[in-house]
Amino acid sequence: MPADPTPTDSTSVLDRFSLAGYGTVNYFNYDWETVPEKRSVVDLERFVLYPGVRLANGVRLLGEIEIEHGGTGVTKEFDRFEEAGEFENEIEGGGEVTLEQLNVTFDLRENLRLRAGRFKIPFGLASVNDEPPEYFATTRAEMEAQMIPTNWYEIGVQGEASFGRVDVSAAVVNGLNSAEFSAANWVVRGHQQKFEDVAAEDLAFTGRVDVRFGEESFAGLSGYIGDSADNRRKSTLLDGGEEVSALVSVVDAHVQVREGPWTARGVLLYGHLQNSSVVADNNRGLSNNLNAKRTPVGSDALGYRVEGGVDVLSFLTGTAQRLDVFGRYSFYDTQWRTDGSVSDDPLWERSVAAAGLNWHVAEPVVLKAEYSQRVRGRERSVRGGSAGDRETTISFGLGFEF
To answer: What domains sit in the chain, N to C, each tagged with a CATH number?
Structure first.
């Protein structure tokens, strides 16, 4: 039985539904010393839809459907002229279509909510500045994306509360899978997406607190802790025949100041992986069919970024448009510290300087241009190449939301 009486006319039915979304299209030109043959590309990065429905008073269902890189598809065709008439499988798209979130939110009180299902983990700044008009540059913040899953969705139960200017959230969710951890991306690939179901032998706990001091200005902390040993699909994590844990702990401190024409943001992120060398040793024996990286995993990861921008059109009169000129510096090392048999590879220490323009031609539409230069490595050899190899990228983008 539905919680609400069934509406008697089509207008009242439609009033219960909502639809929002956003999309991005980008162009990238590469000049990389590390990969000289890397070619320019265009990318239909993503198109996202948020369908929602009010199930009852104070009860809402939210979904998120994401189409990345144009979607994916395979068709079967009959070719009369090649190979004496054969059926062929044709790959029609190289992207993916995913149901990122599906959850029900219960408004218990005006300042208290409970959510159950698959939802976004509100970690750091990348999770709150994830739509094109909300972040500088053509793509989301690189530092966070290379260290933790972004956007980060898990299945569980979440509570949210507001106390004046203070916002608090806490959740219990499924944990990560240590079989997918890697040198380049630390725990990012441990986000369980490739299997039909999600292993939940190990659970995780996450929390966040923010203090708001303006309409779009706030500062806060986020935290995540959870074991990742028993979410491995084929075997437990063993050290000399003994089962051990692989506890993942991540914390961040973040701040955003957005007042008038000025925008400034900063985030510091630190993570630790227990028994990282044991994880690396176990991962070397994984099946090739898993398509895991099987690379040495750092015990500690560290990253930070600072950025600032100013709307230069705000100093002119008579325009509703916004033109942000911005600059950003990021540093991250996914092998900031290593343990046991894992040696520290300087290739995974990366610093990125970027600058560009975000032109909001209308409130929901933004045109972007960015110049960035990434430097890999420290003052020593980098896998036979020169230390400090540079990767220069020029990119342009179109973003919108509705």
So the answer is: 44-66+97-352 (2.40.160.10)
